[in-house]
Amino acid sequence: MDADRKRQGGEGPGQRIQGELRELRQLRELRAREQRGRREERPSATGSRARLDQPRTGRPGLFRLPAWDPEAFGKLSERIARFLGTGRFIVWMTVVIIVWVLWNTVLPESARFDDYPFIFLTLVLSLQASYAAPLILLAQNRQDDRDRVNMEQDRARSDRNIADTEYLTREVAALRQGLGEVATRDFVRSELQSLLKELDERRESADTL
């Protein structure tokens, strides 16, 4: 270290700057190599411990679930739930059931596909009900979440309004106290009149003397 200091002390300022620049370049190259090495490294699937500085990758395999957007699915469920809660859906479902029953009772047996007691129709309606109930519950949960957020925002807004009202109340009280101590025009006029009367009285007393 002493030899390096002596050598640096014997060098000129230009050589020192060049040496510092060379060291900075070497440090940048080392950092770039480390970053490239980290990018190339991948956690092995042989039971070794995963690196914490690397993003977790999906498990490769045949049973990997497809990626889906919960927001888009939630919006679709809300649309379906809104349609299920309208009179249009009831009318269309009634029309389909009537056509189904008439098709399988009035037409000849060769054209029928679901004879009495309409087992296939019962299966379709049960499937429709089994899918409609979770969709309606999902839409209700999303609406509850929105209502909760709106309630929190309303509560925060009401707290701010209460704080602003209290602040304005204190300011109005302070202004009233300040105005109570300020001399009004009538008070100044009465004081001036009393002073004038006192001066006149003193002048009269001085004249009599």
UniProtKB/TrEMBL annotation:
Pfam annotation, one family: DUF1003
Alphabetized UniProt keyword annotations: Membrane, Transmembrane, Transmembrane helix
Transmembrane segments: 89-106, 118-138
Bias type Basic and acidic residues, positions: 19-43
Keyword Transmembrane: yes
The keyword Membrane belongs to this UniProt entry's keyword annotation: yes
InterPro entries registered for this protein in UniProt: DUF1003
Chain positions covered by the region annotation Disordered: 1-62
Designated name of the protein: DUF1003 domain-containing protein
Lineage: Bacteria, Bacillati, Actinomycetota, Actinomycetes, Kitasatosporales
